């Protein structure tokens, strides 16, 4: 995740900021069992400009306060090491309750524990602002509070309110379009595949990111309809490239929620057949973002999908629940390592270790590895040295609309 760079001017007293007004309406909840630490954190948060600071001496007390009025608390600063309920348990409860505010983690344990806790909270869908090791310097707290303020300003500008009804009609009227991002074979440098990414160019609200509408589609059972239009567009495009003699695999993203209906392989086959695309050129990137509830149905669908011909790829590897056990059982041919373990991995020992072991695991299982999020020359060097097969990321090219993509391809 790329860090936001807050460009707020600090006032001359060294605490509080000139943009304090954005924080003045914010309520922060500090959770720490140690009185001294709690008081210190409250004071520092207040000095950073936060208008309303409340505290809790334990996780249970904090959760009660959140439950009482979930929308009243904007940011939670939580200690990890607490008797009774620890910080990890607090995070789990907050995630289950759908807490939407910001989270800052604090711990006296070593930095790796903090990093893991941060990652766990993100995987659970929480909005993690950052973490701090004890002893906590005041400037670190100030910086994180400002980071929160900036991210709130950016998200409230960038996240337009869209409703499920609007999305439903956008899907029906063909407003959802597809952009394309190349995947390059590392050894040959050839563009081997192109990933189809959904986009919603909204007439009033600008380009809406899939991060927003995929989630909405999943919650309101629109995901099947959305997936159908994406498959149809990708397959039509795949057939065009084939007719033009351009040899490209075409990848699409499949939600695990698509794999609850036994007829999915037949529906996919039908849509692809309508376009004349060779289904063996289709790659299905499947994210295991939730535990497989019904393994029987899932294996039935995956195996039938394989029989119909597309290549099955496990997406976002490392972030979800995909385990070694599942990998051995399921008929995946490709492992796509999430960008969290690729971008900047040469400077991050944990990310690098996960990247390295994912590549090793894939090789053991005879799977192709795709590294996504290759942004820099050092990312590229690292994935090359580690023996990844394919790379994707801004270092090669960003996702592009179809005309820009074709123009880019023709210049190679
Ligand atoms: P993903 O499958 O992990 O797709 C890659 C995302 O990383 C894309 O974001 C892409 O724009 C972005 N990306 C590519 N290269 C780089 C890089 O070098 N650095 C960084 N930081 N990011 C890079 P996008 O298009 O916003 O899509 C977000 C997610 O939405 C996708 O993540 C995928 O999970 C989901 N998604 C997109 N289209 C569809 C779709 O048609 N169906 C479903 N079910 N999900 C989709
Ligand atoms: Ca993907
Ligand atoms: Ca990913």
Summarize the structure in words.
By secondary structure, this protein is α/β, with parallel strands linked by helices. The chain is 43% helix and 20% strand. The strands form two sheets. The protein has an eight-stranded mixed beta barrel, surrounded by four helices. The chain has a five-stranded parallel β-sheet with strand order 2-1-3-4-5, with helices on both faces. Strand 9, helix 10 (264-275) and strand 10 form a beta-alpha-beta unit. The model is unreliable at 1-20 (pLDDT under 50). Bound molecules: ligand C2E and calcium ion (CA) (2 copies).
The ordered H/E elements are HEHEHEHEHEHHEEEHHEHEHEHEHEHEH
Spatial shape: globular
Whole-number mean pLDDT: 87
Q: How many helices does DSSP assign?
A: 15
Residue stretches low in confidence (pLDDT < 50, at least 5 long) are: 1-20
Helix content: 40-55%
The structure class reads alpha/beta
Concise account of the structure shown:
This protein has 15 helices and 14 strands. It is of the alpha/beta class and 412 residues long.
Which features does this protein show?
412 residues, eight-stranded mixed beta barrel, binds ligand C2E, binds calcium ion
């Amino acid at each position: 995740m790329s860090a936001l760079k807050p460009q707020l001017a600090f006032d001359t007293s060294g605490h509080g900021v000139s943009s304090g007004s954005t924080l003045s309406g914010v309520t922060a909840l500090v959770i720490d069992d140690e009185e001294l630490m709690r008081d210190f954190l409250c004071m520092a948060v207040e000095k950073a400009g936060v208008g309303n600071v409340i505290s809790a001496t334990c996780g249970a007390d904090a959760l009660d306060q959140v439950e009482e009025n979930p929308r009243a608390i904007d940011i939670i600063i939580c200690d990890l090491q607490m008797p009774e309920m620890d910080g990890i348990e607090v995070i789990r409860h907050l995630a289950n309750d759908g807490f939407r505010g910001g989270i800052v983690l604090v711990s006296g344990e070593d930095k790796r524990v903090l990093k893991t806790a941060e990652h766990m909270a993100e995987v659970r869908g929480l909005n993690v602002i950052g973490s701090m090791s004890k002893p906590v310097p005041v400037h670190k707290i100030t910086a994180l509070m400002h980071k929160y303020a900036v991210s709130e300003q950016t998200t409230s500008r960038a996240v337009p309110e869209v409703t499920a009804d609007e999305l439903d009609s956008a899907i029906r009227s063909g407003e959802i379009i597809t952009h394309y991002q190349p995947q390059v074979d590392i050894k040959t440098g050839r563009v081997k595949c192109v990933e189809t990414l959904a986009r919603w160019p909204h007439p009033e609200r600008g380009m809406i990111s899939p991060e927003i509408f995929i989630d909405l589609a999943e919650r309101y059972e629109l995901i099947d309809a959305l997936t159908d239009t994406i498959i149809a567009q990708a397959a039509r495009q795949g057939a065009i490239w084939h007719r033009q003699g351009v040899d490209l695999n075409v990848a699409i993203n499949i939600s695990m929620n698509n794999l609850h209906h036994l007829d999915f392989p037949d529906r996919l086959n039908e849509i692809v057949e309508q376009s004349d695309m060779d289904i063996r050129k289709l790659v299905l990137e499947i994210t295991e973002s939730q535990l497989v509830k019904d393994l029987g149905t899932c294996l039935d669908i995956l195996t039938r999908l394989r029989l119909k011909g597309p290549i099955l790829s496990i997406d976002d590897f490392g972030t979800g629940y995909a385990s070694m056990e599942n990998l051995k059982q399921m008929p995946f041919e490709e492992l796509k390592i999430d960008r969290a373990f690729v971008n900047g991995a040469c400077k991050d020992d944990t990310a690098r270790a996960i990247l390295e072991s994912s590549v090793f695991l894939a090789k053991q299982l005879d799977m192709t590895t795709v590294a996504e999020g290759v942004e820099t020359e050092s990312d590229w060097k690292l994935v090359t040295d580690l023996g990844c097969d394919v790379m994707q990321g801004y270092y090669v090219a960003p996702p592009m609309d179809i005309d820009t993509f074709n123009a880019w391809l023709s210049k190679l």
